[in-house]
């Protein structure tokens, strides 16, 4: 049996009791380590589980997924993923492949950014589609997020923006020479995200949002030192929310006064927050 | 400290290790029991925790929330909720009240229907706003869900429909006479939901969806006997997905072929599924 087990958001104790029982008895334990990252080291997990954990990076999953799966037909294999098993497309691929090979699969759910973001104070049912923001380069500035945010905001909905992480990247030179030397990991910050959003609005000028639009910057969600900062995009473009991981929520118009009361406590500047809210949402 | 702890979706072992540690040491343990239900009994929880659990129904939370909160300022109180702490508006109210009283609060996240629904095979980032479906009566047929579904589908997005549960309801007569006699609990089925959706489309005729629109019925998500049935709304209006809880996902146009491959395995009737898919989504 292949068990795909969600680890939740922050540390080793965010696994469920059911998940931990499986990890303790599985023949082998893999940790998926390229679509997301946990906020703790592999060593800490191993100590907590009392088991060795094999890091499954992109290379391994792409080149050896059949080996991982094959052994699952005779023994129990645990494949650990940060958040929930259905948080990333890759895991659907793995599930489809397992189905083709007639390997039984069970998934153990957990919290992920997609539901835990409710902690920012906005009701989850008023979120529209989720978008991703990648690091811009001089020649690559993908802006499809812009149209999606506009679609959400046109009907009053909030948008969760997931921020790029770059892990195990090679420089062009090292890649060309086939040298397996990797750049240090990079995690996009709320400030970088807000800056890129403002750049694209300045180019497109379709009014999907403005420098005055309210947003909530979120960091280390689910950990003891999680942080929320509410402010305009212009303010968030200057905000420092500390170490990774960061996310951003752009507010839509469909927001209840109780939600605003809740969020106001996170305001970078309460007066600026109130005036931005009145300007965008009016007094109704 | 007030701990609001998500229990996840299905049984006593879906709590996280961190959550269980808190339950074991808390002074008192409440179980919120009116916005959702767990698929197991209170007694099973008590046995697993080795602790008494106090059921907090709507009456208690509305009339005694300050009592629950007051004791949290001096001792540790655990308030357990099915799914994730931020799944229901009520818990935001509780958090706001705790903040007013300067009571420290910590939340322990877990899976909820809002992210675990990814198990149906559709990518979560292509879901729009979530809607609720209540039991229609002869005189009360709230149809606001219809406009929201139309908004989602107009921009290609899927819609998660959360189905009504009626727990501890009084008949009008018993209510009028002040008798605390409650009706047996009722849980809406996928079939009832699909029927009500079709009734409203037949009335409104705005083409938000049709009897031929594909949807996925989901039951007992996260449990060992969870079930998915994919089919047209017309088919789902006749489908039997067994015991509660049920949910429904209405497909949008923004769907990848890999997702359709994954879902096809749940089809009530593969040929009907394929022809409905081609009719609504075309061959692109």
Automatic annotation (TrEMBL), chains A, B:
Keyword S-adenosyl-L-methionine belongs to the record: yes
GO biological process: one example: methylation
InterPro entries xref list: 4pyrrol_Mease, 4pyrrol_Methylase_sf, 4pyrrole_Mease_sub1, 4pyrrole_Mease_sub2, Dphthn_synthase
Pathways involved: Protein modification; peptidyl-diphthamide biosynthesis
E.C. number(s) listed in UniProt: 2.1.1.314
Stored CDD domains: DHP5_DphB
Keyword line: Methyltransferase, S-adenosyl-L-methionine, Transferase
Reactions accelerated catalytically: 2-[(3S)-amino-3-carboxypropyl]-L-histidyl-[translation elongation factor 2] + 4 S-adenosyl-L-methionine = diphthine methyl ester-[translation elongation factor 2] + 4 S-adenosyl-L-homocysteine + 3 H(+)
Segments traversing the membrane: none
Family the entry assigns: Belongs to the diphthine synthase family.
Function: S-adenosyl-L-methionine-dependent methyltransferase that catalyzes four methylations of the modified target histidine residue in translation elongation factor 2 (EF-2), to form an intermediate called diphthine methyl ester. The four successive methylation reactions represent the second step of diphthamide biosynthesis.
The name this protein goes by in its record: diphthine methyl ester synthase
């Amino acid at each position: 049996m292949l068990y795909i087990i969600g680890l939740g958001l922050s540390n080793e104790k965010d696994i469920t009791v059911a998940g931990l029982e499986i990890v303790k008895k599985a023949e082998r334990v893999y940790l998926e380590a390229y679509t997301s990252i946990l906020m703790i080291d592999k060593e800490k997990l191993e100590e907590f589980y009392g088991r060795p954990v094999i890091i499954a990076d992109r290379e391994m999953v792409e080149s050896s997924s059949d080996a991982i799966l094959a052994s699952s037909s005779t023994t129990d294999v645990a494949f650990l993923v940060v958040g929930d098993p259905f948080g990333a497309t890759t895991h659907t691929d793995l599930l489809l492949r397992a189905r083709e090979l007639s390997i039984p699969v069970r998934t153990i759910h957990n919290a992920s950014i997609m539901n835990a973001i409710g902690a920012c104070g906005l009701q989850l049912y008023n979120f529209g589609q989720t978008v991703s923001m990648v690091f811009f380069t001089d020649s690559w500035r993908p802006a499809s997020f812009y149209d999606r945010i506009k679609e959400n905001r046109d009907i009053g909905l909030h948008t969760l923006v997931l921020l790029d992480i770059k892990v195990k990247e090679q420089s062009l030179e090292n890649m060309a020479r086939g040298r397996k030397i990797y750049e240090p990991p990079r995690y996009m910050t709320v400030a970088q995200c807000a800056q890129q959003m403002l750049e694209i609005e300045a180019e497109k000028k379709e009014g999907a949002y403005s420098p005055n639009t309210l947003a909530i910057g979120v960091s280390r969600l689910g950990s003891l030192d999680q942080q929320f900062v509410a402010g305009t995009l212009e303010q968030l473009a200057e905000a420092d929310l500390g170490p990774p991981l960061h996310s951003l929520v752009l507010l839509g118009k469909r927001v209840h006064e109780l939600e605003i009361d809740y969020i106001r406590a996170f305001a970078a500047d309460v007066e600026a927050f109130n005036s931005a809210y009145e300007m965008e949402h009016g007094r109704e």
